[in-house]
């Protein structure tokens, strides 16, 4: 049995081909990888761009989407101190006010000189930032941006996830970026793939082309671990092996017949929710950047992207659309709108409030898994308990990690292999 028809669940089903049941709580496939249509505007669940590192997965999605798949060079920026600079901040101080650039460079080279003096790995994410980037970059970007993004201070987080997602520039990169010489995009997402009509075309194509029999509108409410029965909104479903992609934290609380420590370990896992806005514009956005990072506290959002800059097919002709990822975890109220409008004007994305056609507040209850100091142990114990009981919990929230769509597809590939082993 497969629980969840997001990318991880769909990829598991695609690999298994037959001999499974796929249960999905919602009335559509795709999970977070989805596109909704509203008055002719197509909105994803904030920016979902496909960064491919695995040749096999890339070939697979190309075969699913064919000519509908666009290949796009990233145009992302950082907006701070009233100017746009290139990504990543740590290697692109050119264009910042000279005093700020100086502070960043000075801190970077001081940190560089101290590099070999540390006995062990960084204590936490804050320590990681100061070791590799220095105090200036910490102050002007890394600490405020990450605090807004994760909803917790870097001190509370481990640095376990940083290797892949936080580019560490060389000294030459930093010097070149200080004088405006960086002509290559750094980081894990310099180019991306994107379906013309929105990211939701990807799971829809997998679902349709492979005729995957997903049982939509079927939520799992409990799991009898010893008897291997899932209790669903449509009655009990027995299984031999279970691949689940629902959030691990929630799964840990649904297991019946598990020792009490399992629920305790699950409740130790932390995740931040995300409130964001889908914004329809009467005209195109004021610049052609795909997205911009906004570290300063005075702005209520930490990142703004322009769907309509990914593909013109996402909006009616001549219109534009944005997603605005809010720093506050509290539900959005209309009274918060003026600060958002002011921010969008300062970023040059709109000229006046009248450019906005409508705003839809949205929420992702499980958005960012927090790599705090309890993460490693609680997660490992839960996965070990599940494995002993014929359950594999995978995907971004099943595994309980910070990962991307391609990882979800890879997790599905591995899960199918695991499920087949169980038959042998
Ligand atoms: C704000 C944000 C931006 C992102 N941007 C990018 C990006 O640009 N590029 C990128 O590659 N990745 C991005 N990601 C990550 C990407 O969304 C995920 O890696 C991927 O979609 C995870 O797929 P999944 O199948 O593991 O999980 P999900 O998409 O969460 O799917 C899980 C499925 O399980 C179902 N389910 C849950 N509970 C139950 C239950 N009790 N019973 C039955 N079904 C249930 C859900 O309805 C859902 O369909 C982003 C994520 C976020 C939060």
Word description of this protein:
With 424 residues, this protein is α/β, with parallel strands linked by helices. It is 36% helix and 22% strand. It has a seven-stranded mixed beta sheet. Strands 9-2-1-13-20 form a five-stranded parallel beta sheet. A four-stranded mixed beta sheet has the order 12-11-10-14. The model has no long low-confidence stretch (mean pLDDT 95). The structure holds flavin-adenine dinucleotide.
Can you give keywords for this protein?
alpha/beta, Polyamine Oxidase, Chain A, domain 2, protoporphyrinogen ix oxidase, domain 3, 5-stranded parallel sheet, globular, binds flavin-adenine dinucleotide
Number of domains: 3
Radius of gyration from CA coordinates: 22 Å
Bound molecules: flavin-adenine dinucleotide
Which stretches are poorly predicted, pLDDT < 50 over at least 5 residues? none
C-alpha termini separation: 16 Å
**Strand order within the widest sheet?**
7-6-16-17-18-15-19
Structural class: alpha/beta
Q: Which percent range fits the helix content?
A: 25-40%
Number of β-strand runs: 20
- Basic shape: globular
What fraction of the residues are assigned to beta strands by DSSP? 15-25%
Count of separate DSSP helical elements = 15
The major β-sheet equals: 7 strands, mixed
Mean pLDDT comes to 95
CATH homology superfamily name of the largest domain: FAD/NAD(P)-binding domain
The CATH architecture designation of the largest domain is 3-Layer(bba) Sandwich
SSE map:
Blueprint: E1 2-3, H1 7-16, E2 22-23, E3 35-38, E4 41-44, H2 55-65, E5 69-73, E6 76-80, E7 83-86, H3 98-114, H4 125-132, H5 134-150, H6 162-165, H7 171-178, E8 191-195, H8 201-209, E9 214-215, E10 220-224, E11 229-232, E12 235-238, E13 242-244, H9 248-254, E14 255-256, H10 260-268, E15 271-281, E16 291-293, E17 301-305, H11 307-310, E18 320-326, H12 337-346, E19 356-369, H13 375-388, E20 391-393, H14 395-399, H15 405-423
The structure holds flavin-adenine dinucleotide (FAD).
